[in-house]
Amino acid sequence: MKCVCGTEGWKVKKITAGSHVNPEYWHLLSDDLHFCPNSDCDVVYFDKRVTLTVREVKTKVFFKEKGSPKPLCYCKQVTEEDVVEAIRKGAKSVKEVEEMTGIGNGGHCVVTNPSGRCCRQFYVKFIEKMLEKAVSDGDGAEKSSECCRTDRG
Ligand SMILES: [Zn+2]
Q1: The CATH number of the domain where 106 resides is what?
Q2: First and final CA of the chain: distance in angstroms?
Q3: Ligand 1 centre and the CA of 127: distance in Å?
Q4: Alpha carbon of 26 to those of 57, 99, 149: distances in Å?
Q5: Rounded to the nearest whole angstrom, what is the distance from the C-alpha of residue 62 to the centroid of ligand 1?
Q6: Cβ distance 101 to 82 under 8 Å?
Q7: Is it the case that residue 148 has pLDDT exceeding 70?
Q8: Burial of 59 (0-12, 13-18, 19+ CB in 10 A)
Q9: Same domain, 14 and 36
Q10: How close is the Cα of 26 to the center of ligand 1, in Å?
């Protein structure tokens, strides 16, 4: 089923949506709810007659979230900021980040993750991107002080 934004959604269980939607909207939940994976779209859950947006959903949806902290792993409460911090502290691989942050291995994604899917497929991509960035940037701290110096004039 397609969202109003045109993105093909994936089906979520009622128990998934029920865990994240504000209780005042529970009566709108059906067995045909879909999740919209488009990060630019405010719709989180929809079916043929109902659309529930980030305003009706109490849980921050990681990739629809513009501010921080951005949740990555809901079972273990690990955020993007935690992953960046682990890499700054010396984690060099996805496995090392997993060990340092405790990300993944929760096993409750169907309830805790608003997408109803395992967080691993999302966070592995993010960790890989951040590891690559850490390598190509060299020391990130140096860069930001350079920027401040420019500001001073
Ligand atoms: Zn959408």
Answers
A1: 1.10.10.1100
A2: 54
A3: 25
A4: 11, 37, 52
A5: 15
A6: yes
A7: no
A8: middle
A9: yes
A10: 20
User: Structure pTM?
Assistant: 0.79
pLDDT at 142 over 90: no
Ligand 1: centre distance to CA 66 (Å)? 16
Distance 105 CA to ligand 1 centre (A): 29
In angstroms, what is the span from residue 107 Cα to ligand 1's centroid?
27
Cα-to-centroid distance, 10 and ligand 1 (Å): 11
Ligand 1 center from residue 4 Cα (angstroms)? 6
44-82 pLDDT, tens per residue? Answer: 999 999 999 999 999 999 878 888 889 999 999 999 999
Q: Are 52 and 71 in contact (CB under 8 A)?
A: no
Q: How many domains does the chain have?
A: 2
pLDDT of amino acid 65: 84
Q: Which domain holds residue 134?
A: 62-139
Can you point out the beta strands (E) in 70-139?
A: 71-73, 78-79
Q: From the CB of residue 66, how many other CB atoms can be counted at a distance below 10 Å?
A: 7
